[in-house]
Amino acid sequence: MSVDAVLKEAMTLEGAIGAALVDYGSGMTLGEISASKELDLTVAAAGNTEVVRAKMRTMDLLKMNDSIEDILISLGRQYHLIRPLTSRSGNGLFIYLALDRARANLALARHQLRTLADNVEL
Hints:
single chain, alpha+beta, Beta-Lactamase, 3 helices, 34% helix, globular
């Protein structure tokens, strides 16, 4: 699936507020889509890049030979999911998805985000 198709599909998830494909080397988005004027995906992408980098640094310091499947940030009214891509072409990229906590099914969203991340074609 193309980047645009993946992001549009992510936005069909119940409770989706915004989605972006982010380069965690630069913090820049390669694509984004939002259903909310309040969610600035450019700022969110840059901030969540720091989250991914910090976790990767910590894993390196702990000499963990592992990879990040996803990162969940639970806020009072939202869930924020970060899913690094695992394909060679997706190395250094992650999908960021913001969900309305009251409407989203977290388990289903994580499952569908994994499927989408596995199908991104760059």
